[in-house]
Write a structure and sequence with these properties.
single chain, Methylamine Dehydrogenase, Chain H, 3 domains, MetI-like fold, 4-stranded antiparallel sheet, 30 strands, alpha+beta
């Protein structure tokens, strides 16, 4: 047989099942519990993972700046070559695009290596070089894979004449390629330090200039078949080199390095740069008009006899090469870039934040902190408040006065400043958040339990227990506590919602656990990023989850009002 005390203790559950809104609250709360429990299976990825994407980005220069155009596939584009009537673009994973009459067409190549450099002659012959010694030759209409014994990455190629090309790459690799017999002849580097050579271009005097790591520059003379060192005036890594038909030249590199030569007999001078981000490709014409592109969508422009300026761009994707011809100028890329502020899509249901993290996954994991703080904090509040109320109501007198004055003092302590002091005294952690919730929220529970105990202690069954010789502890916890349990359940339900809001508030203020994901922490990141007014998908999901959780707890606690209010019980 179930004792009357136990039946009274389980009365709140019966009341909840009789209230439709409470049932809805139970269902919603159960779903959120399942979301927290199975978060690793529901979430699409690690909540701390930064999403990166790779894209054949194309930016077209217009009167309104550089505008993003339809993408050329899902792999980065590395180099371009152009002649009258045809443009070539090469990229990663053996990708090749050709353009004739403003129409881009993907060309299938018999290689899967990353393609790093391409060069074309006026007659249409072309060479492509890439990773793992990849080498392709086109002398007619078809591409032919040339077998080499190279295993290093080949980074750039330039035609010396119609029958010879110079190829450079890692470990100071310098190769002379004979188109006639398809042979490769290695040339000795005058440096011998294993530097990476990044770019090569034919000069107007017939020699070939090579640039690379740490400002290394070399000149190849076809007449003597020798390579010698030259100085360009910089020790920074140079990524690209372009020489116009008149001898005007531009070398670009890391930290916004811009080195320019005004003519074939001019000196190399370092230009003032408007930005220190790395540059990956450059172009200059006979009059000195130039472009330089690089990381984070940076594009620099130079008018003749003017300084370099930053151009207006529509994208922050990394740019690796630039193509300029009679049709205009386009900048292409890109390396892997962070998918920042992506709106909701099939890949990211709730979009991404400023660091490219998936907000759906973070919201799923955030439910764990909310429920843990909500229920653990509320449980601690019930334990503290119930015991204080029991002791104060049972013993009355000085004990009651001391405990109730302590409650009055606790009511005078504001929650946020108190939590801030705890964080300053200790370190931000989940335990500090739970402690802050528990140490202040128990005061209301203590008062309510005390008032109930003051009424119960005068009941006949309590007097009978005293006459029977029961101890004070036995009377409090065996006879009085089961009778106040419905009120405890009511306060527990209410305090869960209070604790969840308190945790969200502390995390929103930056006082939450730094290495944990919470709904309040997601809103905190949105506020710090400055994008919370525009990236609606960032604020909406955690806000809705907080609202749903608190409302479900409110609906449950609403059904328990019958326990605390005898008048409502009488009406029913």
């Amino acid at each position: 047989m179930i004792s009357p005390a136990l039946k009274e203790a389980f009365a709140p559950l019966r009341l909840m099942l009789q209230d439709r809104l409470a049932v809805v609250g139970l269902i919603v709360l159960t779903m959120i519990f399942c979301m927290a429990l199975f978060a690793p299976m529901i979430a699409s990825q690690d909540p701390f993972a930064i999403n990166e994407d790779e894209d054949g980005s194309v930016l077209l220069r217009t009167d309104d700046g550089w505008l993003l155009q339809p993408s050329l596939g899902q792999v980065a584009l590395n180099d371009t070559a152009s002649r009258a009537g045809e443009d070539l673009i090469v990229g990663r994973q053996g990708s090749l695009w050709t353009r004739t009459a403003d129409n881009w067409e993907r060309v299938d190549l018999p290689v899967i290596a990353d393609l790093n450099g391409v060069a074309m002659t006026d007659t249409g012959s072309a060479i492509i070089v890439g990773g793992d010694g990849a080498l392709l030759l086109r002398t007619g209409t078809d591409w032919e894979v040339v077998t080499t014994d190279q295993t290093v990455a080949l980074n750039s190629v330039a035609w010396v004449d119609d029958e010879t090309a110079l190829i450079v790459g890692q470990d100071e690799t310098i190769l002379r390629f004979d188109v006639t017999d398809k042979s490769l002849s290695p040339l000795n580097s005058p440096l011998g330090r294993g530097m990476t050579l990044n770019a090569v271009a034919k000069d107007v005097d017939g020699t070939v200039l090579v640039v690379g790591e740490r400002g290394v520059a070399m000149r190849y003379d076809p007449a003597s078949d020798a390579v010698e060192l030259v100085r360009l005036g910089s020790s920074r890594t140079l990524e690209d080199l372009h020489i116009a038909s008149s001898g005007t030249a531009l070398a670009i590199g890391e930290r916004g390095t811009l080195i320019r030569r005004d003519g074939p007999d001019g000196k190399w001078t370092v230009d003032k740069t408007p930005d220190s981000r790395g540059l990956m490709a450059g172009w200059i014409d006979d009059a000195g008009r130039g472009y330089a592109v690089g990381r984070n969508g940076i594009i620099m422009e130079r008018a003749p006899e003017q300084d370099w300026i930053l151009a207006s761009t529509e994208s922050e994707r990394h740019l690796r090469t630039i193509l300029v011809n009679d049709a205009g100028a386009i900048a292409l890329g890109s390396d892997k870039f962070v998918v920042r502020f992506a709106s909701p899509s099939a890949a990211h249901w709730f979009g991404t934040d400023h660091l490219g993290r998936d907000l759906f996954s973070r919201s799923m994991y955030g439910s764990r902190i909310a429920l843990l703080v909500g229920f653990l904090g509320a449980t601690l509040v019930m334990i503290i408040g119930t015991n204080v109320g029991l002791v104060a109501g049972f013993y009355r007198g000085k004990t009651d006065t001391i405990l109730m004055r302590t409650v009055d003092v606790m009511y005078g302590i504001p929650f946020e400043p108190f939590a801030l002091i705890l964080v300053l005294l200790f370190t931000p952690s989940l335990g500090i958040v739970i402690l802050a919730v528990s140490l202040l929220t128990w005061r209301t529970t203590a008062r309510l339990i005390r008032a109930q105990v003051l009424s119960l202690r005068e009941r006949p069954f309590i007097k009978a227990a005293r006459v029977a010789g029961a101890s004070d502890l036995r009377i409090m916890y065996l006879h009085i506590l089961p009778n106040v349990m419905p009120l405890v359940f009511l306060e527990l339900a209410i305090t869960v919602g209070v604790a969840i809001i308190a945790e969200a508030t502390l995390s929103f203020l930056g006082l939450g656990p730094p290495q944990s994901v919470s709904w309040g922490g997601i809103l905190h990141d949105a506020r710090l990023s400055g994008a919370w007014r525009t990236a609606w998908w960032w604020n909406l999901p955690p806000g809705i989850f907080i609202m749903m959780t608190v409302l479900s707890v409110f609906f449950i606690s609403r059904s328990l009002e019958l326990v605390a209010n005898p008048r409502l019980r009488a009406r029913r």
